[in-house]
Each structure stands twice: as C-alpha cells, then as structure tokens.
Amino acid sequence: MNDRLKIVSLSAQDEGAIEQVAELLVEGFRENWPEAWPTLVEAKKEVYDSFEPGRISLVGLNEANRVVGWVGGIEQYDGLVWELHPLVVGEAYRGQDIGRQLVTALEEQVRQRGALTLWLGSDDENNQTTLSGVNLYTDTWKQIANIKNLRRHPYEFYQKLGFVIIGVMPDANGPGKPDIYMAKSLVDIVEQS
C-alpha cells in the first residue's frame, strides 16, 4: 500500500502536471491500446477535455509531487451515473495500490455529487480474455460468466474493487474485439421481495 500518495484535483493551470499526465497516457496505453493516445498532442487533448463541465480529473502525486497516476470521471444520466475514464498509473508505480486509491477517490467524489453508479468500458483488442476473437452474439451471458483472463486484462483489477461485468459490446473495436462493460453500485441496495 502506498500511504504517501496525495490525491488532488488536476488544475487546468498546472501545465507541468498536465504534461506528466499526457506522458502517462502515452506510456500506459502503448502496449495494449496504442491507438488510444499515440502522441503527446492527442494525450494532452484528452487531459484538457477532462476540465469540461460534468467532468472530474484527479491525479496521484508521489512525495516529490510528481504525477504517478490519473483518473477521470464523466457525468451521465443527470449525474446518477458516472463513467470512469480513464485510469492510468505509471509503469514504475503499478502494483503499489495507487490505482485502487485513485478509483476510491473518484467514487467518493461522484457519490458526494449524488451518483448511484460508477461504470467503465474496458476494451479487449489484443486477445487478453476469452471474450476476444469469438462470436459474442451466441450464448452471450454464458461466455461472460465463463470469462478467463489470458494476458493481464484489467477487468480482474476492477472486480477486486467491487465492479461487475454488466455486458459487452461485441466488435466494438473491430471483428472479435469487444468492449467489456463493468459497473459498481455506490449505494446500499435494499433487496425487494
């Protein structure tokens, strides 16, 4: 666990931190989703978009006040639902609980704004799960129930944080390349009988 992490709102005036976040995006998605933010220009645009109304932008800072992680949130459904987009942790800082702390901080902020649900999409463009390369229009829920992680897909990270797979969008990124939809309730649900 990283007790020295400081999580703060990213400021549109903090050019140094914006540059660091952009570098994290390019580095963090290069291996599994290189077309997401292939250049610093595209990554910076994503960061600047995070300052729009209805958005949250949080960074994790280490002891030297360097950005080691970033999480964003996008308001949807009149604030009842928020999308977690994106989440990235610097390669040298992975496995140190930073991702969990960033997601938890985002959850708290959207809960305070009245959100009931936090959701995300997690693409599988590189055959990282058993949902890739198959026909997801047949026995969809059976395939989801039997999902296996073949090559470090992040869906298991999110499951550890309480997210569940709520569906898939087959072929979202091309034939056999789905987007896996996950969500988490931010309220105590009372079972009705």
What does this protein look like?
This protein has 193 residues and is an alpha+beta fold. The chain has a 7-stranded mixed sheet with strand order 1-2-3-4-5-7-6. The longest helix is centred in the N-terminal third of the chain and has 15 residues. The N and C termini lie far apart (40 Å).
Q: Given the helix and strand composition, which structural class is it?
A: alpha+beta
| Widest beta sheet: strand line-up | 1-2-3-4-5-7-6
Strand content: 25-35%
Return the string of H and E elements.
EHHEEEHEHHEE
Percent range for helical residues? 25-40%
Given as residue ranges, the uncertain stretches (5+ residues, pLDDT < 50) are: none
Label the overall shape: globular
- Oligomer state equals single chain
Average pLDDT, all residues: 93
Number of strands: 7
N- to C-terminal distance: 40 Å
Helix count, per DSSP?
A: 5
List the SSEs and their pairings.
Elements: E1 6-9, H1 15-29, H2 40-49, E2 55-61, E3 67-76, E4 81-89, H3 98-112, E5 117-123, H4 140-145, H5 155-160, E6 164-169, E7 179-185
Parallel strand pairs: 4-5
Antiparallel strand pairs: 1-2, 2-3, 3-4, 5-7, 6-7
Quick overview of this protein structure:
The chain has 193 residues and is α+β, with helices and mostly antiparallel strands. It is built from five helices and seven strands.
